[in-house]
Write a structure and sequence with these properties.
The chain has 674 residues and is an all-alpha fold. It contains 30 helices and two strands. Among the domains are: 164 residues, no CATH class; 96 residues. A hairpin with a 3-residue loop joins strand 1 and strand 2. Helix 14 runs parallel beside helix 22, helix 22 packs antiparallel against helix 24 and helix 28 runs antiparallel to helix 29. The radius of gyration is 26 Å and the shape is globular.
């Protein structure tokens, strides 16, 4: 998106008249991607189309319409080769080639084509003759070359942190015998490690790439198609129509629209850059500070990654690790994501009530009926997708059907795609597919390095030993590790690493497996709103034109509830809807009340009772309210937990005392004034 166009949209957002509606344009491009010439855009379109056709052929078992069914391993070699080639077209090696594809990238692409064609041609022999343990010399050399290429692809797509971590753990089997006893294992020759990485089923083509090629692929295609056909503007306009006139309306719009957009894109930063240029100026207009507006947008966009039905690649990988359906993971994520957005909503509402920040005039907002008439089919397509996922249990094919339905209906609306828009859509798909493929292929090497040595189980046992069998200490260790890894890696990459190393330790301590996996994913995501590297907050700060660190600390304060939510559900799986209906209802009801109280304590305003004041007594009252909220949301003993009720009663007494003394002081001051 050009600067002029972005400024125009921001101007629209500040006026918020009938022109509030966004056009169905693409998200703003990132400087990480190359600006390709027409010729290379054509190459990317061809490669993207080839990967989509390969995926459709395999998922629907079409046999290329001639009855030739690909082996799973041959399919993996072909589609991985195509997408790795896309990485070297999309991402420059250095800052010196931002607009052209240099000769060495062309050479790498030719090498990829030769190497992966060789492996695809001999795919059957690789499986039958167990080349992962005894490959011919040419296979060994090509495996070494592939290893290097995959690490470089990971560096370009994920950055130097991904490269360093992948290099250390993929090479770990070659020097494992030189490490201290806690990490030591038998060393393996580098050529044997290369064979295991490239020709086995537990490394490069392990869970991450298998899930990506067989499940995630279709959902990414659906998400991009939804944005390019006008889904993003529809959800933003719907949010303004429903909530824009409410107290603190634009901030509540940010929660609603960013939650839905994040569910589609699965990326906090792209979410901020898509919805932020409209919501942040609108928040500033009614009185929110720049840093507060940036913090709201960062928290809302980050929380969108948690939102079913499309939660990004992480949820699919989690389902594969746990050997359960994706729908099970999505259902389990409903309550935690609800608690997160409910807490954010309550804080914003309390802040707006305390500072008397009103909504936008109704006459400046779009009408609900007009918005629905313009984009009803987005709701219909979402409903069709959920029906196919939940009732038909067709996870692999559902997004392809939904995408086809969306594109067909869209051509009969004002958002219909012309040739240029279609090429833009394909180009964006290619960038997203290349980025995820590069990262997940590299992360697969970490799994291979740990699998071939068998060290993962040892690490888990050592972590339990270090924690002294104290589950809370182990969780705190896991939270810190997840957060640190999340700083330098994507949520999916950090989750995969910890799912191998840390989650077994949590489950060995008696915690629920699904809750343990969710816990790791949530804490890996927290780095996006927590300084010093709060990437989502920094992106929002650039839109709001405010200090990145100030936006980061505001986002951390606003998103404070998410720091508690993972501990709520890891100790109480009923919050993941894993209990009986009565247990689930009790857990949800007490958690909602608890989150509301914590939000009130954080903002100093309890809805229904008013401002809690600013003095020392106010902090005592707020502390009791916050403590009561946390206790209510934690696991209960019995139906509601007598200890929780006692603490809630104490908090209520403190609140009544505080408000009573404040009113008494106010009355005395009024009497003296008279």
């Amino acid at each position: 998106m050009s600067d002029k166009k972005q400024a125009h949209q921001q101007g629209d957002s500040s006026r918020l008249g009938s022109g509030i509606g966004l056009k169905a344009d693409a998200p703003a491009p990132s400087i990480r991607y190359r600006a390709l010439s027409a010729r290379w855009r054509t190459v990317m379109a061809i490669l993207t189309g080839a990967s989509i056709l390969l995926a459709i052929n395999q998922v629907f078992n079409l046999g290329f319409f001639v009855g030739y069914v690909l082996l799973d391993s041959r399919y993996m070699y072909l589609i991985t080769g195509v997408m790795l080639s896309m990485v070297f077209v999309t991402f420059p090696a250095t800052k010196h080639s931002p607009t052209h594809v240099p000769w060495y990238d062309v050479v790498i692409m030719l090498v990829i084509a030769c190497v992966f064609s060789y492996f695809a041609f001999y795919a059957e022999r690789i499986v039958l003759e167990a080349w992962e343990y005894a490959a011919p010399p040419i296979g060994v050399w090509l495996a070494l070359v592939t290893w290097v290429i995959v690490m470089e692809a990971g560096r370009r797509a994920g950055g130097w942190p991904v490269f360093v971590i992948v290099a250390v753990f993929s090479l770990y089997p070659t020097f494992a015998d030189t490490l201290p006893d806690v990490m030591a294992a038998l060393s393996i020759p580098v050529q044997d490690v290369a064979m295991f990485h490239v020709m086995g089923e537990e490394s490069l083509f392990g869970i991450p790439m298998q899930v990506f090629a067989q499940l995630v692929f279709g959902f990414l295609v659906f998400g991009v198609s939804l944005q390019y056909t006008g889904g993003g503007p529809f959800f933003i306009n719907l949010a303004f129509a429903l909530l824009g006139h409410k107290r603190g309306g634009p901030a509540k719009v940010s929660i609603f629209s960013s939650g839905l957009m994040g569910s589609m894109s699965g990326g906090p930063i792209s979410n901020v850059l898509t919805t932020g240029p409209l919501s942040i100026p609108a928040m500033q207009r009614i009185g929110f500070t720049r840093e507060y507006a940036a913090g709201v947008e960062a928290c809302a966009s980050t929380g969108g990654v948690l939102m079913p039905p499309i939660m990004g690649a992480t949820a699919f990988v989690m389902a594969s690790f746990l050997n359960i359906s994706y729908v099970t993971v999505a259902i389990a994520a409903i309550v935690p994501s609800l608690l997160y957005f409910f807490g954010l909503f309550m804080q914003i509402d309390a802040h707006a009530a305390r500072d008397n920040l009103q909504g936008l005039p109704k006459e400046e907002l779009p009408k609900v009926g007009a918005v629905f008439r313009d984009g009803w089919y987005f709701i219909a397509v979402f409903a069709a997708l959920i029906w196919m996922l939940v009732f038909m249990q067709r996870e692999a094919v559902a997004p392809f059907y939904a995408t086809a339905l969306l594109l067909v209906i869209n051509q009969f609306t004002k958002h219909r795609l012309d040739v240029n828009k279609l090429l833009e859509l394909v180009a964006t798909m290619g960038k997203l597919l290349a980025e995820l493929a590069g990262i997940l292929a590299a992360i697969g090497l970490i799994i291979g390095g740990l699998a071939v040595t068998g060290i993962a189980g040892t690490i888990a046992n050592d972590l339990v030993y270090l924690a002294g069998d104290n589950v809370l200490v182990l969780l705190l260790m896991g939270a810190l590790t997840s957060f640190i890894l999340g700083i330098g890696m994507t949520v999916t990459a950090a989750y995969i690493f910890l799912a191998i190393v840390l989650v077994p330790a949590l489950t060995n301590s008696g915690l629920d497996p699904l809750a343990s996996h969710m816990f790791v994913m949530y804490w890996g995501m927290l780095s996006f709103i927590t300084p010093p590297v709060a990437l989502a907050a920094f992106a929002a700060a650039s839109v709001a034109q405010v200090s990145p660190m100030r936006a980061g600390f505001e986002a951390m304060r606003l998103g404070a509830i998410i720091y508690f939510v993972p501990f709520f559900f890891v100790f109480n799986p009923a919050l993941l809807l894993q209990g009986s209906w009565l247990e689930n209802l009790q857990a949800l009801s007490t958690a909602l009340v608890g989150v509301a109280l914590v939000s009130a304590a954080l903002q100093g305003y309890l809805i229904g009772l008013g401002d809690l004041g600013r003095g020392a007594l106010s902090w005592v009252v707020r502390s009791f309210i916050g403590l009561a909220g946390i206790t209510l949301a934690l696991p209960a003993g019995g139906l509601f937990g007598i200890s929780q009720l006692i603490l809630l009663a104490i908090a209520g007494g403190a609140l009544a005392l505080g408000l009573g003394l404040r009113k008494l002081n106010s009355a005395m001051l009024n009497t003296q004034a008279l």
